[in-house]
Amino acid sequence: MTKEYKELAVAALRSGTVIDHIPSHNLFKAVKILGIEKMDRAVTIGNNLESSRLGTKGIIKVADVEFDEQVINRIAIIAPHAKINIIRNYEVAEKRPVRLADTIVGIVRCPNPKCITNNEPMKTHFDVTSRQDDDVTLRCRYCGHTVESSEAIIE
Amino acid sequence: MNKRSLVSIDDISREEIIDLLRRAQYFEANPTHKLLDGKVVATLFFEPSTRTRLSFETAVNRLGGRVIGFSDAATSSSSKGETLKDTIKMVSNYVDLIIMRHYLEGAARYATEVTDVPIINAGDGANQHPSQTLLDLYSIYKTQGTLYDLNITMVGDLKYGRTVHSLLMAMKYFRPTFHFVACDELRMPSQYKELCDSCGIKYYEHHDFSADVIGAADILYMTRVQRERFSDLLEYERVKNLYTLRRSMLEGSKPNLRVLHPLPRVNEIDQDVDESEKAYYFEQARGGLFARQAIICRALGIDTPTLTTSIES
Ligand SMILES: [Zn+2]
């Protein structure tokens, strides 16, 4: 990786949010979950960057936006090791990991085609039944089917 | 959301199960009782099931209530594209209780979220059918005099059979020993065996529907082995007759043994078993009426007398 490229990846942000350590293959899922496509602020997205932990990683920087904690924690489904950096006045004012809530409303689609959630205009509702490192098991509150977070289809 | 709704047998506690069985006992002794005078009950069958619908409607009628509804989705507004939510909200304006069956899994749970009228789930796809479970428990209790410490042998389709899964979950309170008799393709799924492990319930798996297994049983719970469940039709041909109960196989079984089956049966119980005093599947279906009367009264918050025999151990 060239020096130039690295500098671009960490280009300074005056204020806003940097989401780091997103697995490369899930970067665009994270973009979708956070609704970044619809934002009008400056957004920088980097992917396939070197990471000692993940091999390669993705990073998202959004200027002038601090996400609601509940909103940003939703990406924990697909990026359990993501780190949130809140930047104020060019400095990291807060740094914290994401944490997956015990229930997830919306976002994940139920894998069961005969589930009511795939046939009515309604939100899905999953309960987290086990957490093992990267993989989290989710159980549909309606039909009882389970899905591993790594295989979850994002709505 | 109405807290007296019954969507899954898992939603109710051991005490509530026992309370419902006591009420069912009362209704068996007093089947006609005008406790629902002036009440209107909807039976919404988005998927036809004559057996279950007749049982519920008879239960309402015997309690003196009135029934409105439909018996399949083709005659309902859902065939015009109305959402389930809209149908439930519309019907909720008219009735005190909704009993519903739906081909989609989770439909009854969703219905409870869009109305304050109590909902009774009369089956949602392959998911839950709590009144069937309650009538199974009632049969076990009636024939054995207790729910505790019984040897329960489940035979046939243990993989897809919703009734065996629900029965297993409900029996977890009563210290059972389970025997699971099935071919490899239709074995009890691991999640239910893990549930047994976590509750300290003993279980044994068998391929052979042998004299030893039958000889140890207090309850033989038979299920249908359906051809469409098999990915390998040769395997179906090989096993289809291995899990059929014949009268001769009951020789040497315990005197208190009773044979249950959720019905309809095809060929998994030979006709000659019907004459045995150990065949209980027709009485089992009859008990469904009393179990459903009990469930309906609970859903409406109507207090019913109970007989004072002890179910507790
Ligand atoms: Zn589902």
Walkthrough of the structure:
The complex is a heterodimer of chains A (155) and B (313). With 155 residues, chain A is mainly β. Chain A folds into 2 domains: 16-97, 2-Layer Sandwich (Alpha-Beta Plaits), CATH 3.30.70.140; 103-154, SH3 type barrels. Helix content of chain A is 12%, strand content 41%. Chain A has helices at 3-9, 27-33, 69-73; strands at 16-23, 43-51, 55-63, 83-88, 91-97, 103-105, 108-109, 125-132, 135-140, 146-148, 153-154. In chain A, the strands form 3 sheets. A 5-stranded antiparallel sheet of chain A has the order 2-3-1-4-5, with helices on one face. In chain A, strands 6-8-9-10 form a 4-stranded antiparallel sheet, with no helix packed on it. With 313 residues, chain B is α/β, with parallel strands linked by helices. Chain B has helices at residues 14-29, 50-62, 84-92, 107-114, 130-144, 162-171, 190-199, 211-216, 233-239, 281-299, and strands spanning 40-45, 66-70, 97-102, 119-124, 151-155, 177-181, 202-206, 219-222, 258-260. Chain A binds chain B through residues 112, 114-117, 119-122, 140-145, and chain B through 83-85, 102-107, 109-110, 124-127. Zinc ion is lined by residues 110, 112, 115, 117, 140, 142-143, 145 of chain A.
Short structural summary:
Chain A is mostly beta strands and about 160 residues long.
Radius of gyration of chain B in whole Å, from Cα? Answer: 20 Å
**Poorly predicted parts of chain B:** none
Tell me the Rg of chain A in angstroms: 17 Å
* The named CATH superfamily of the largest domain in chain A: Aspartate carbamoyltransferase regulatory subunit, N-terminal domain
- Strand fraction of chain B equals 5-15%
CATH topology of the largest domain in chain B: Rossmann fold
- The sequence of SSEs of chain B as H and E is HEHEHEHEHEHEHEHEHEH
Supply the CATH superfamily name of the largest domain in chain B. Aspartate/ornithine carbamoyltransferase
Which ligands does the model contain, each kind named once? zinc ion
CATH topology of the largest domain in chain A: Alpha-Beta Plaits
Going across the major beta sheet of chain B, what is the strand order? 7-6-5-8-9
Q: What would you call the structural class of chain B?
A: alpha/beta
Contiguous runs where pLDDT drops below 50 for at least 5 residues of chain A: 1-9
How would you characterize the largest beta sheet of chain B? 5 strands, parallel
Average pLDDT figure of chain A: 87
How many helical elements of chain A?
3
Biggest interface, which chains? A-B, 15 and 15 residues
User: What count of domains describes the coordinates of chain B?
Assistant: 2
